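Cross-check.
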Amino acid sequence: MPRSASSIPDLLLRAGAMVALCAAHALAQGGRTVGEPQPAEPDKPAPGKPAISVPTGIPEPSQAMRRRAFEAMRQKGRFPDIEARARKDREDAAQRLVAKHDAVQRRLYEALGLAAPIDAAKPRDGRAAPSAKGWMPMLFASSSMPLQTLRNYASQLETVGGVIAFRGVPGA
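Predicted model, tokenized:
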């Protein structure tokens, strides 16, 4: 779910506060992870290490610093040249997708025998010329198919020189 622009800086401030708390906690433990044994006297630094002062809380940013941070967040991402390129790339991709869809649809129609092969020449009477390989589209149909559907298939098959094949005799 997209967040509003005003909630994103608040989330960033909270995340920064959590990181600062974790870092302060780790520094307070002398860089140890949770579960490691702590020295008996945590106030004394280890031999050879200088004493580290640890902040006790998260500093509250001033109003000026907060305002600058929010203004910077609002201005981030305003690049008209990149947006224009992205829009153009999206349109180009949509055109390529349409072209690829049309090519796949033509190949599918040819494979199913609903369209003539690309290399088949049609004579003037509209019927497909028999190819050298003897290619003939054949549609296997059932007598339970609607009559209008069978007529549509027959008219399409006639243009490519195909036939409809029934198994058995309809109505017998």
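The CA atoms of residues 81 and 115 lie 45 Å apart. The two ends are 62 Å apart (CA to CA). Passed to J.P. for a second look.
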